[in-house]
Amino acid sequence: MLTKEKKAEIVAKYGKNGTDTGSAEVQVALLTERISELNAHLAKNPKDFHSNRGLLMMVGKRKQLLKYLETTNLEAYRDLIKKLNLRK
Length: 88
Hints:
It is a single chain. The chain has helices at residues 4-14, 24-44, 49-72, 74-84. It has four helices and no strands. With 88 residues, it is mainly α. The mean pLDDT is 95. The chain has one domain (4-84): Orthogonal Bundle (Helix Hairpins). It starts with a helix and ends with a helix. The longest helix has 24 residues, at 49-72.
């Protein structure tokens, strides 16, 4: 679970300003953090199929946002995948 402090730290790092929570970069960064936490949960609880479905939905949403960012702002897209260590 993302705490307020962790979420604010991610928004400050990837957003254009301190209150920028809606940009694609921030949304992708937040989803990446939630995905990594959920991966750790599923490693301990492999039969948690409901959480697995949630994970797959988050991965799909992140993929959509990255595709949008790639088509609208290629430089920001490349910078973001480098910062988050995402493959592509």
